[in-house]
Amino acid sequence: MPQHTSAVLLTDGAGQPIPQYLDTADKTDSPQGTFKPLTKNQPVQLAGISIPGGLPVDIQGAELSVGSVVVENVQSKTQEVTFHDAVTSADEGTPFTVGAYKTLTVEIYGSATARTVTFFAVSASGIKRPLQGINLETLAFASSTTGIGEIWSFDITGLESVYVEISSISGGNLTVKGRAVA
Known about the structure:
This protein has no helices and 17 strands.
């Protein structure tokens, strides 16, 4: 059951409460604790679980609404990924560690006159397997392509890592870059 506290709630200039937490270690305002502003760098305690350093949130993009609280411009975490940068020979490429990312969009471009690009994933077992993706122009599913100027999309939820391997290349260079979204 929640305890009552005589600590004063923090408010903005218009008298409206601001996001805050009750610091039970600081007994300055009441025996139950002191209200402090909730910031990215403050430790947060949820149902007895302490998260040191606070909860980082990227604020850019859409709108999030929970009850009467509205936070505007919230965006999912993204990361730029470079698998190959203007390579001229076959190469496994730089692997991408998936972590908490869920989707991956990859673009293949360059001056190569012929090429074969193969998509691979590694799961918990550590085994490298072909990864099916969808070509966003043709809507075709495949785990490899000989095309250029293409954009591919992948569901990478729960995987350990992703490789985009250039199996063969001739007549120029090839770049394979992408963006992962959490």
